[in-house]
Amino acid sequence: MNKGTKIFLIVLFALNSIYSGAQNESPLLPFFNPLIVNPAFAGMDKISSFRTGNQYSLANSASSYNLFYATYDTYSEKLKGGIAFYFQQGLIGSRNISTTELGFAYAGIPKKTNTGVINFGFNTNILLATKQWIIAFTDKFTVDGRDTPNPPGTDLLRYSLIKPRVSFLWHMPDLVWGASLGSSLKINLSTEESSDKQFPFNASLYVAKNSEGFRKGLHSQPFVIIPELMIYYTDMYLLGRLNLYTEFTSSTLGVFLNGDFLNNEYSVGGIGGLASNNFRLNLALGTGYSVSANKVGFTGELSLILKVQQFDYSKINPWAPRLKSK
Question: Angle at Cα 76 formed by Cα 71 and Cα 80, nearest 5°?
Fold first, then answer.
């Protein structure tokens, strides 16, 4: 993959974010960004990574969702842990709601066990929900005092959410698993929104084969097989996904099963991708079925991943291994 292609892909994703809506309360889990599922992934293995992608799901004719995400995480020697920054936009089509979300995460406080190391993480995201601007713009010209505006109402600003979350991640020689627990505080920005003051919680579970890590600073395998299970619960959705894919040095190939068990919506599909040096471009495409609506749906995600491994070296003798501190 030459430099021109890499620049084109980055610009493509940047433009895509401008034309996307926003998402929060929707049945979407990124296929290739575990940091969104569990903040304790920040700075894992002291690798800096930038991940961006766009996911679209059409459960039936009345229910569509879109999610654009971009995250950056790295390891901070000063903070003795990983840090991460979140940006998300999307669309809740059935409600004509768009959201924009920003967040920060920290992962660290390692605790050694007989079987590995446990890292703890926390993050806080702030979300702003508005009426989808195209619908709001259309209502200005088509709705007069006798007509009813399109949902969710006449006000552009709808509500804001403050979303704290805590998590842990257990690194074992052959397994990585962890869980997170979070809640949200809703601040109404419109008199048309519900004044419900409850604090709904959410929880996630992540389990995968440990495919990261280096032996003497080198990757010795030409490919890695990654089975991965993600479960995410809210009062509106119970999402589960099983990914099974193989990362070769120049490609990615796999399959996935996805389901929302509270709303009886399920999908199956394939995963493919290309890789070059530290770049990896992945595409997941699948078809699904909504039991409640008796409709066939569609889901897909295009993602771009850039990873940079942190190397320690001596400026005087760059080939010498780093000395362990006493």
Answer: 125
State the DSSP H helix or E strand holding residue 213, giving kind and residue range, or none if neither.
none
Tens of pLDDT along 208-248?
987 654 444 444 556 677 899 999 998 888 999 999 988 88
Q: Is residue 323 part of a domain?
A: no
Q: How many domains does the chain have?
A: 1
Closest CA to 125 of 177, 178, 180, 182: 182
* 25 touches 92 (CB < 8 A): yes
**317 in any annotated domain:** no
167 DSSP β-pair partners: 121, 180
- What CA–CA distance (Å, rounded) separates 170 from 115? 9
Cβ-contact 90, 21 below 8 angstroms = yes
With a CB cutoff of 8 Å and minimum separation 6, the contacts of 163 are 103, 124, 125, 126, 127, 182, 183, 184, 185
319 vs 39: CA distance, rounded Å = 34
Q: pTM of the full predicted structure?
A: 0.79
Residue 181 falls inside a structural domain: yes
Angle among Cα 96, 290, 234 to the nearest 5 degrees reads 60
Give me the residues of the chain with pLDDT under 50, please. 2-24, 213-219, 313, 325-326
CA distance 74 to 80: 11
**Domain interval for residue 231:** 3-309
Amino acid at site 122 = F
Cα(48)–Cα(32) distance, integer angstroms = 15
CA atoms within 13 A on the CB side of 234: 17
pLDDT, tens digit, for every residue of 7-40?
444 444 444 443 333 334 666 889 999 999 999 9
314 within domain boundaries: no
Q: What CATH number is attached to the domain comprising 76?
A: 2.40.160.40
